[in-house]
Amino acid sequence: MQATGRKDTAPELALRRELHRRGQRYRVEVALAALPLRRMDVVFPTARLVVLVDGCFWHGCPQHGTTARSSAGYWTDKIAQNRARDRDTDMRLAEAGWTVLRVWEHEDPAAAADRVEDYLPRRRPAPERQPDHVTSPARASDPERFGAGRRLLGGLPEEARGLPEMRASSRYGVERLEVCSNGSRTTKPARVPPRAGLVDHHRLGG
Predict the structure, then answer these.
(1) Mean pLDDT throughout 137-152?
(2) Is 48 a residue whose pLDDT tops 90?
(3) How far apart are CA 157 and CA 194, in angstroms?
């Protein structure tokens, strides 16, 4: 509708509301460097897409365009000038690297928004964000967390098998295995009650 100097018409607002409802963001009433004296209805700068909503009467819609009964010659020339101006706008924007999409005011806003989105890059759905207190579960294939621990726990007494990452030791009975963030591994004595019948020969001096 830039040829008539009108803005925020009902068809424009309906299309903009539909695009906004779908999550699309855009600029309105923009003067581009290629055409500083002409305002573009809807602009997607990243996609370099210009959407122009044309009135059926003012731009000579082939389906709904009408001819005024009074001063028919004047209005015929006026609409012809508007159409010539539209072609000039399309050509100059294309030369500047913009894609121009024209929408008639009689089009359904949802159908028009579908046509607009065909020229826009596909939006990827945002990944689900877990709460801060939820940590990612360790992979069962991680040898530091599962494989080594299961092998070391194989020979422990019943009381120690429920403890994470333990291993047997002839001196202390059981030690706790810790894996540091840099990959190093340390051990610390674990407080596990000795199994009945076991004797620590090191402490007895044997």
Answers:
(1) 50
(2) yes
(3) 8
